[in-house]
Amino acid sequence: MNTQVDAPRQLSDISRLKLILPSEIHELRRIIDRVYRERGIALQPELELDSLNAVKAVIADKTTQYATILPHSSVTRELAGHVLSAYAIADSAMVRTIAVVRPQGGSPRKVVLTALIDEVRRQAGRIKRSMGSADVVLLGQG
Length: 142
Prior knowledge:
Layout: E1 6-9, H1 11-15, E2 19-21, H2 27-39, E3 47-48, H3 52-60, E4 67-71, H4 76-80, E5 84-89, H5 110-131, E6 136-141
Parallel strand pairs: 1-5, 2-3, 2-4
Antiparallel strand pairs: 4-6, 5-6
């Protein structure tokens, strides 16, 4: 499955695109806004949509010329199918931290949980390596 991400783009270049972003209730949007604010770059999305499927449908329509910023893992199928293309974002602060949450203390399931956590770490590392230095990517039409 080819989910390659093209060369990184600068935040200032991305801010000039017709962007669809999630509303400010979403953690991803708060990360995006924080990084742009820290860099002193104005960011005015043209549209706010909270539905991932709706965002992907609008982006896939080449007549709209919209772009968005999403986690790479949320569009791997579309990248593999050449429906969308992606560019890494050239800013190491544009990351989202995720965690596996499990019960505290030992249990018979500990072996299974440990294996699951190890696999999540391996897959996250694989995705991160395939994306370059950014954990969030900019999407556009394929």
